[in-house]
Structures are given as structure tokens and as C-alpha cells.
Amino acid sequence: MQVLLAPTKITCDHGRAPGGPIAPVRSPAAALAGFQRDCERQARQALGEAAFQAAYHRGLQLPAGDAVAYALRQPPPAPAVPAEAPLTPLEVARLIAGGRSNKEIPPSW
Predict the structure, then answer these.
(1) How far apart (Å, rounded) are the C-alpha atoms in residues 72 and 95?
(2) Total-model pTM
(3) DSSP secondary structure letter of residue 82
């Protein structure tokens, strides 16, 4: 997401004194890097190093669509319905949890 914001001109009040002036940022990437470092530091303090590392590595494993949905506070996209192989009960449960109806799930026999 940082890459998507890089070409835009943004203003940043990160780190300024309350009531202080807001200056245009010449390098949005640099501003975002500083913001990311601060957020990461705060998360490490709040969670502890072990929990932070576990959450960080879980986040690295997220498919792109799920990561975007998480960032936007939306439910993850429903998984695609496999067309050929019969579904296991766990796969059926995941499809239902993802919002599929019985009619959208092929028979599993």
C-alpha cells in the first residue's frame, strides 16, 4: 500500500507539536517509512516481541486479497469453489464461512 501512495503529494502531521504547523512532505515514501517505524515500535511495546513476531509472520502469509480486506476492515473474499475434486467437510465449512450458499457449493460425493 505504501507503493500506491508514493506518487501522491500528501501532508503529514506525524511527530509535530500539537497546534504546530503542518508542512508539505517532499518524499511521501520517507514519511510513510517513518510512520511505519513508529507504528511498529508501538505494536512491539504493546504486544511484546514474541507476539509481535508471530503476528508479523502471520501477516506475511496472508494472500493479497485477504491483506487488503484486513487493512480496509472488510471480510476476506470468499474462497473459490473447486470445480473438479470432491470437497472435504473442512473445505465445505470454509466455503460456508466465506459466505457461499448451499446452492453455490457443489455436492461432495
Answers:
(1) 21
(2) 0.44
(3) P
